[in-house]
Design a protein that fits this description.
Strand order of the largest sheet: 2-8-7-6-5-3-4
Helix content: 40-55%
Radius of gyration: 21 Å
Bound molecules: pyridoxal-5'-phosphate
Order of helices and strands: HHHEHHEHEHEHEHEHEEHHHEEHEEEH
Distance between the termini: 53 Å
Largest sheet: 7 strands, mixed
Length: 373
Amino acid sequence: MESELHPGRLAVPAVRELSPYQPGKPISELERELGIHDIVKLASNENPYRPSPQALAAMRAALEDVWLYPDGGAHDLKYGLAAHLGVDPACLTLGNGSNDLLVLLAEAFLTPAHSAVYSQYGFALYGLVTRETGAQPIEVPALGMQAPMPYGHDLDAMAAAIAPNTRLVFIANPNNPTGTWAPAAALKALLARTPATTLVVLDEAYFEYGHALGTQDGVAWLAEHPNLVVLRTFSKAYGLAGARVGYAISHPEVADVLNRLRPAFNVNSLAQAGALAALGDQPHMRNAVSATMRELARVEAAFRQLGLWSAPSAGNFLLLRVGGPAAPVFERLLQRGVIVRPLAGYRLADCLRISIGLPQDNDRLLATLPQVL
Ligand SMILES: Cc1ncc(COP(=O)(O)O)c(C=O)c1O
């Protein structure tokens, strides 16, 4: 019987057709492959300044209770976040990373009868979670090279692309992998044009970095726009990518839907303890962000000196055009122990995405790059 020979074919068609998300290459994998050490990973937009020591201490203390199930409602973390953000705890949904929340949003609001709008070069998960539900993806061309924000979201065109069956519009601000961001006025105009039957998912995974450069805080608009959902994460500025904690801030009815769908223990007890303590150490986070933004400016200037163009960035990474196919440049960097991210999956075959590391990591990249171009 066919089902016995090919059990994978029993999966629903939309899922069978998915291409998996391609994460950055882990250091351990490159060590195994090349037998080299002293590897620098600038491939996953992680925060090399690491989490607050208070977060690490809280996670170590939480280990003692690891035999107990976590608090499914994550009471302490939720109340801590609510106080930090100035919102009602009923507006919050916690996720196993904000990735989890993107999946929950798609599962809750999309079916094959619906569509979702996102930008060309928008974060890859938007297309993935949309297609997983069988909904129609509406990918809107990005801004061109002549625009003030090349490769950025064309919010006018995105608003115009919203169809009567569009349930979700995904906007990353700043966006990954481009680093580009949208002016507050353009975001407001899109919100004003979005019908009440469409949710706008404003993904602020890099909020803390962008905010240092003056990008909009979407939470300020929630009271005015019940169809707005803001996503944030502890993976980037708080340095807890491995712990997997993200959150959605939304109208309480949207939070109620997401919380009903969410697996009860989607944020584990170590992660809850670490995130709450990290939130309590704002100076540590702010110092990491300032150091990263200083280095971002330095790396950007060094690229310019090499005659290379990088997109304007309000994240902890740069989109670099290498002036030819990027795959061989990526490979040659790998051979020299520098892991960056190729972007052929985004149809940006002449670009690399390079995370901002510690000053010595960035020095290594800048010293290696001229040898491999
Ligand atoms: C724009 C954007 N949104 C969401 C995520 C998901 O992050 P996490 O699941 O670690 O919170 C990422 C991760 O790189 C991202 O770049």
